[in-house]
Design a protein that fits this description.
There is one protein chain. The chain has helices at residues 2-31, 97-102, 111-118, 147-158, 196-206, 219-222; strands spanning 35-36, 47-53, 58-63, 89-96, 124-131, 140-145, 171-172, 181-186, 211-212. It is an alpha+beta fold. The chain is globular. Helix content is 31%, strand content 21%. Strands 6-2-3-4-5-8-7 form a seven-stranded antiparallel β-sheet. A hairpin with a 4-residue loop joins strand 2 (47-53) and strand 3 (58-63).
């Protein structure tokens, strides 16, 4: 009887997991198609920002400096490997710290890293990347926003960082993907329901731009900018 009960319990557990995964995938596909702020206008708006995707992860890209915010005073180019500081844009991408730092390539992904990220057991980090120019394409969408909307975006991004006792961003040294990027400590935890793309999508929602009602994927954002 104990063996039968064990097998029954195992079967119910597997069925429960499979049902959850099916429900999760269906929810992701359906809810991400629901648009918010779909009728927003970009007419007469002065500040250009970008949504940038690498095919999986999205960044929000902003001007390094304008009259509303000078990011170069906080995100220091000297903390990157590059010596060429002729850059105009700065990309922000929030995500799981363990995944960011320990998985530069998909082949480096460990089961423990994926598990911790999926269930909010790890801390988070902000990945910043400097760019000279932004080129619009299928994975890079330009948006024009107002000064008021941009100030909301600045606040949202700034409040995603974890600051030290002096209220400065905390650089994570000796980690980068290339010559013009750096990592910083961030607030919050990555989960199955709140991913890097959820963070980007919320940035768009807060600034009254077209976005998904909820999404965990980059396509859930980009589909509203076809």
């Amino acid at each position: 009887m104990s063996v039968k009960k064990s097998l029954k319990t195992l079967g119910l557990a597997v069925l429960g997991i499979m049902s959850f995964l099916v429900l999760y995938v269906v929810s992701v596909l359906l809810i991400s198609k629901i648009s918010v702020n779909s009728n927003v206008s970009q007419k007469d708006k002065e500040i250009e920002i970008f949504i940038l995707s690498n095919g999986v992860h999205t960044d929000i890209v902003v001007p390094i400096k304008n009259k509303y915010k000078d990011w170069s005073k906080e995100i220091l180019f000297q903390q990157t490997k590059s010596k060429d500081s002729l850059v105009n844009y700065l990309a922000f991408g929030w995500g799981d710290k363990g995944f960011y730092l320990n998985t530069p390539e998909w082949s480096d992904l460990k089961a423990s890293t994926a598990f911790n990220a999926a269930f909010g057991l790890s801390s988070s980090a902000m990945h910043t990347t400097f760019y000279k120019n932004m080129n619009e394409n299928a994975n890079c969408k330009k948006i024009k926003i107002s000064a008021k909307e941009y100030q909301k975006l600045v606040t949202y991004i700034s409040e995603s960082f974890a600051f030290d006792s002096s209220k400065r961003v905390q650089w994570i040294s000796n980690y980068s993907y290339g010559n013009r990027d750096a990592f910083y400590e961030a607030k919050g935890s990555y989960t199955l329901f709140y991913t890097c793309n959820t963070w980007s999508n919320n940035a768009l929602k807060i600034t009254n731009q077209k976005a998904s009602l909820w999404t965990v994927t980059d396509t859930g954002i980009l589909c509203h900018y076809q």
